[in-house]
Design a protein that fits this description.
This protein is of the alpha+beta class and 211 residues long. The chain has one domain: 60s Ribosomal Protein L30, Chain: A, CATH 3.30.1330.60. The chain is 40% helix and 11% strand. The protein is built from seven helices and four strands. Strands 1-4-2-3 form a four-stranded mixed beta sheet. The chain is elongated, with a radius of gyration of 23 Å. Its main location: membrane. It comes from Pseudorhodobacter turbinis. It is found in: Cell outer membrane. One of its GO terms (cellular component) is cell outer membrane.
Amino acid sequence: MRISKFFLGASLLTLTACGPGFNQEVGGPPADFGNATMNNTLIQSGQKDYTIALAGRFAREVPSTITFAFDSAQLDARSIPLLRQQADWIKTFPEVRFRVYGHTDLVGTSSYNKSLGLRRAKAVVAYFASQGISRDRLEALASFGETRPLVQTAAPEERNRRTVTEVSGFVKNHPALLNGKYAAVIHREYIELAKRPHPSNQVIVTQTNPG
């Protein structure tokens, strides 16, 4: 019995190590959700589970990644509609903070690519700001291609030249969260009626015949 329990435990550990989150792309809810300082802060404030849940929801409901032309931080016609979807989602959750990670392919030096990745992330943040989103809720970070390539190649690769937007936490002391009601934010639904034109009031005219 002890031997079977030992092998069962070992099997579970193996599956955990190989499951989702192992070497996971930035942009989905990571296994440890960020660096140690942020992780500890989220745990102590009771936000971690809610932050991860909201990060997963963002990744499922909107395209979190856009790509760039070679050696460029310019937003193009393909990326704007995707960023608009991200911006609409972000505006629906004013209590939430976001990070934008800029990536490059593996062409060029690490220092140049880090600068290019940051310029790409800042371009996305600037677009969000132009859509009325406060910069206080946004952070631009660089992660150059050598550290997080989607495709392992030394050649130019568009899929590696990207930004990824993700949920990073909640706005400190936001009025909607003073009572710790993070779950209410997670389960909030889009208000579709607010996006639709209000139906015009129909005026019913009754005509009376002269008698």
